[in-house]
Amino acid sequence: MVRRKKKTEPDRFTPEIDLQIVDGVLGDSENMLATLTRAGFSKEEIHRRSRSLGLSNRFIAQCRAGDIVVSVRRCLNCDDKFLSMGVHLRLCVRCRRSA
Q1: Burial class of residue 60 (count of CB atoms within 10 Å of its CB; 0-12, 13-18, 19+)
Q2: How far is residue 44's CA from residue 22's CA, in Å, rounded to a whole number?
Q3: Please, is 30 exposed, middle or buried when counting C-beta atoms within 10 Å of its C-beta (0-12, 13-18, 19+)?
Q4: Is the pLDDT of residue 22 over 80?
Q5: Distance of alpha carbon 12 from its chain centroid, rounded?
Q6: Could you give the count of Cα atoms lying within 13 Å of 79 in the half-sphere of its Cβ?
Q7: What is the model's pLDDT at position 7?
Q8: Which of 11, 15, 84, 99 could bridge across to 89 with cysteines, CB 3.0–4.6 Å?
Q9: Cα-based angle 95, 26, 50 (whole degrees, multiple of 5)
Q10: Phi and psi (nearest 5°) for 81?
Q11: 6 compared with 57, residue with greater pLDDT
Q12: Whole-model pTM?
């Protein structure tokens, strides 16, 4: 059974914005923050979104340690967006922990 979250407001974070956040955190975070704040996002929103995508210090260290291709995917269980380090990861961290 697939659980879906109720959304009370439209998601301002499009897949393109999510990719900018991922690229910025893994690369030039200062430039990414400046670009997105000019686009109307607060630093708090950007940091909250990066955490919800799964950009933890551990994840970033793993990405920098090897040739890992990171993709933004939708969880097959809850339909949230999350960062995946391969096609074999199809559940977000929260759903993997509860499984």
Answers
A1: middle
A2: 16
A3: exposed
A4: yes
A5: 13
A6: 8
A7: 47
A8: 84
A9: 40
A10: -80, 140
A11: 57
A12: 0.66
Is residue 95 within 8 Å of 78, Cβ to Cβ? yes
**CB contact at 8 A, 84 and 73:** yes
Using CB atoms within 10 Å of the CB of residue 54, give its burial: 0 to 12 exposed, 13 to 18 middle, 19+ buried. Answer: buried
- Identity of the amino acid at 34: A
What does the alpha-carbon distance between residue 84 and residue 72 come to, in Å, rounded to a whole number?
A: 6
Residue 78 CB-density burial (10 A; 0-12 exposed, 13-18 middle, 19+ buried): middle
Would you say 67 and 85 are in contact if contact means Cβ atoms under 8 Å apart?
no
